[in-house]
């Protein structure tokens, strides 16, 4: 199977799974943005995406893509480390025009996945999981997503502020990951030329920013609220 | 103005492919900054021979930047700290008095060290043999102008063809990937009508050989293009991806 056995095939899998996850982020971010405007609107979205069959299928597909992206990342990294040989360079230097993020995609990816576990425990477990299983996992009704978010990010005293800052670190790691990931994915798909190379790099930065900015806005909004409540 | 400098050179010494290598530091006095880096290496070797020591083995041939034979990883850069040149075109004016210069061989699993700074780069030849050519029957030479090729296309093919196969791309790549080399060799032919006929077959054969030889997977860091002595563009890698993916989808 060339998607596993050839280097470009493996990169294609990374590229497509990554781009799919960027689409998910854009979707997720837009829904979160509702929190800033109307808690009622956000709760309506929560009820639409709770225990409905399409929400469950969607969640499973996303989980599958995360798993593929994660497994291939390690597979590729192990192969790449082996390709470097046994002796490392004694002296390495930075090349001009080479992004730091591009050389640290695995580290950034592990940061993103690490925080993801925290995020799922904080929200998914108390929302979709609680609704699916009927188990009470928090003081909040699974349908009252806005109440939960507000409590976690603003109503929990100093912990809320710590959580907000942790989320900002997470989002920064995610942005760095995407600042290289998006254009690199497009390049792997073959969408580049002497002219388009610069363009897809800019498109990549714009998409990365668009995917992360809604989350930042929501966190900063609640951080402000939390600081005000103290 | 160029003047005379005293330097220390920290060189990787390795007796053979299987031997354990190590760094050794040599002092060199009164080196003219107008000298090329390889001339400095020659002076160092003369000094070693006078001391009845084994001279340093390193690859070199044309010494004018066209053969791709010189290699050397100088102070963290393949072909040294200057850009768009080979090691033989590097001059001592890039270094200052009292500096310690670190010189290492290319390090990549597919380029095993033969001795000291000399590495075996036959892997690139094997990739070329797998498909880096066009099949033409010998006989009457066709007129060069019989097939019209737009100037921008000819220029891009020519820029890709400027690759000298020195191996700096794989040496610079943190993944040990040879994609810039393979993409340049695929592009120089895929862009032209004579090369288009075998383009799909070529891309598949060369990538299969590249993977088989143990080169890494490209992650588009761009270190290869930044260090390339011939400034081959990353856009070629996208063309190779395109050629390969289209060829596989057609199968």
Q: What order do the SSEs of chain B take from the amino end to the carboxyl end, as H and E?
A: EEHEEEEEHHHHHHHH
The figure for the number of domains of chain A is 1
Task: Please state the average pLDDT score of chain B.
Answer: 96
**Largest inter-chain contact set:** A-B, 45 and 56 residues
Biggest β-sheet of chain B, characterized? Answer: 5 strands, mixed
Strand fraction of chain A equals: under 5%
Shape of chain B: elongated
Query: What is the level-2 CATH architecture name of chain A?
Result: Up-down Bundle
CA-CA gap between termini of chain B: 62 Å
CATH superfamily of chain A: Fumarate reductase/succinate dehydrogenase, transmembrane subunit
Q: Give the CATH level 1 class of chain A.
A: Mainly Alpha
Helical element count of chain A? 10
Q: Which whole number gives the mean pLDDT of chain A?
A: 92
CATH topology of chain A: 3 helical TM bundles of succinate and fumarate reductases
Radius of gyration of chain B: 20 Å
What does this entry show, briefly?
The complex is a heterodimer of chains A (230) and B (251). With 230 residues, chain A is mainly alpha-helical.
Give a verbal description of the structure.
The complex is a heterodimer of chains A (230) and B (251). Chain A is mainly alpha-helical and 230 residues long. Chain A is 79% helix and 0% strand. Chain A has one domain (2-83, 105-229): Fumarate reductase/succinate dehydrogenase, transmembrane subunit (3 helical TM bundles of succinate and fumarate reductases, Up-down Bundle), CATH 1.20.1300.10. Chain A has helices spanning 2-5, 7-37, 39-48, 53-83, 100-103, 105-124, 128-133, 145-155, 158-188, 196-229. The mean pLDDT of chain A is 92. Chain B has 2 domains: 4-115, Beta-grasp domain (Ubiquitin-like (UB roll)); 122-250, Alpha-helical ferredoxin (Fumarate Reductase Iron-sulfur Protein, Chain B, domain 2). Chain B contains 9 helices and 7 strands; from the N terminus they run ββαβββββαααααααα. Chain B has a 5-stranded mixed sheet with strand order 2-1-5-3-4. In chain B, strand 3 and strand 4 (77-78) form a beta hairpin. The longest helix of chain B has 16 residues, at 235-250. The N and C termini of chain B lie far apart (62 Å). At the A-B interface, helix 2, helix 4 and helix 9 of A face helix 7, helix 8 and helix 9 of B.
């Amino acid at each position: 199977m060339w998607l596993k056995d050839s280097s470009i095939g493996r990169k294609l899998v990374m590229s497509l799974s990554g781009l799919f996850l960027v689409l998910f982020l854009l979707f997720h971010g837009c829904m979160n943005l509702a929190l800033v405007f109307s808690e009622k609107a956000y709760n309506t979205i929560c009820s639409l995406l709770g225990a409905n069959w399409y929400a469950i299928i969607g969640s499973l597909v996303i989980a599958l893509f995360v798993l593929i992206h994660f497994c291939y990342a390690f597979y590729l990294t192990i192969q790449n480390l082996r390709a470097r040989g046994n002796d490392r360079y004694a002296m390495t230097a930075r090349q001009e025009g080479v992004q730091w993020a591009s050389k640290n995609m695995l580290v950034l990816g592990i940061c993103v996945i690490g925080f993801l576990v925290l995020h799922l425990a904080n929200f998914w477990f108390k929302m979709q999981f609680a609704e699916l299983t009927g188990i009470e996992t928090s003081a909040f009704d699974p349908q009252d997503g806005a109440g939960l978010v507000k409590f976690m990010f603003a109503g929990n005293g100093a912990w809320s502020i710590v959580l907000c800052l942790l989320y900002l670190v997470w989002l920064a790691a995610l942005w760095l990951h995407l600042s290289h990931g998006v254009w690199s994915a497009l390049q792997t798909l073959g969408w580049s030329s002497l002219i388009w190379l610069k363009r897809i790099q800019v498109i990549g930065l714009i998409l990365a920013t668009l995917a992360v900015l809604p989350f930042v806005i929501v966190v900063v909004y609640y951080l402000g609220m939390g600081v005000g409540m103290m | 103005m160029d003047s005379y400098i005293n330097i220390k050179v920290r060189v990787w010494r390795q007796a053979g492919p299987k031997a354990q290598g190590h760094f050794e530091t040599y002092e060199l006095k009164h080196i003219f900054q107008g000298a090329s880096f390889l001339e400095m290496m020659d002076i160092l070797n003369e000094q070693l021979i006078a001391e009845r020591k084994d001279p340093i083995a390193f690859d070199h041939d044309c010494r004018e930047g066209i053969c791709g034979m010189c290699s050397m990883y100088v102070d963290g850069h393949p072909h040294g700290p200057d850009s768009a040149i080979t090691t033989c075109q590097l001059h001592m004016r890039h270094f200052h008095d009292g500096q310690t210069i670190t010189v290492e061989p290319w390090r990549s699993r597919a380029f095993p060290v033969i001795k000291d700074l000399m590495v075996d780069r036959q892997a690139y030849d094997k990739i070329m043999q797998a498909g880096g050519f066009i099949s033409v029957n010998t006989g009457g030479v066709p007129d060069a102008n019989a097939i019209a090729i737009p100037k921008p296309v000819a220029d891009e093919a020519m820029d890709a063809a400027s690759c000298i196969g020195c191996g700096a791309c794989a040496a610079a790549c943190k993944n040990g990937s040879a994609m810039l080399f393979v993409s340049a060799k695929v592009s120089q032919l895929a862009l032209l009508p004579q090369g288009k006929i075998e383009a799909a077959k070529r891309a598949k054969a060369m990538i299969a050989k590249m993977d088989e030889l143990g080169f890494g997977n490209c992650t588009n860091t761009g270190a290869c293009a930044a260090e390339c002595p011939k400034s081959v563009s990353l856009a070629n890698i996208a063309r190779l991806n395109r050629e390969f993916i289209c060829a596989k989808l057609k199968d």
